[in-house]
Design a protein that fits this description.
- With 114 residues, the protein is mostly beta strands.
- Strands 1-2-8-3-6 form a five-stranded antiparallel β-sheet, with no helix packed on it. The chain has a three-stranded antiparallel β-sheet with strand order 5-4-7, with no helix packed on it.
- It is globular.
Length: 114
């Protein structure tokens, strides 16, 4: 079987109404997905609190992430990446509304220390 080549930055013909999640592949202890945001944010008062770790990089567009305990968000530009440990509560404060913000997210089980 010959592998297919995909471009993660290929834009949609029209901007999606909602955030798009596309699983690219899954392994025994990890999952890789492409996320395309167009002006979305996490609902007010909602926090992500995940059982697994997540490494995410913003490939295009712009976004603002906020972690619980911070008074303000952190602005991200293409190339910015963050490793989010399990149960580190966080939210997306904003993504660009006039263009696609493309993320690459790797969800994984962290290695236990000691």
């Amino acid at each position: 079987m010959i592998p297919e080549i995909n471009n993660l930055l290929t834009p949609f013909e029209t901007l999606p109404e909602g955030e798009e999640f596309e699983e690219l592949f899954r392994g025994q202890s990890c999952r890789v997905e492409r996320i395309v945001s167009t002006g979305q944010s996490t609902r007010e008062g909602q926090w992500y609190d995940q059982e697994h770790a997540e490494w995410v990089i913003l490939l295009s567009g712009s976004a603002v992430l906020r972690f619980e305990g911070e008074t303000g968000g952190r602005s991200l530009v293409p190339g910015d990446a963050v490793n989010i440990p399990p149960h580190c509560r966080h939210r997306v404060e904003a993504t660009a509304a006039d263009q696609e913000s493309v993320w690459l997210a790797i969800h994984y089980e962290p290695v236990e220390n000691g």
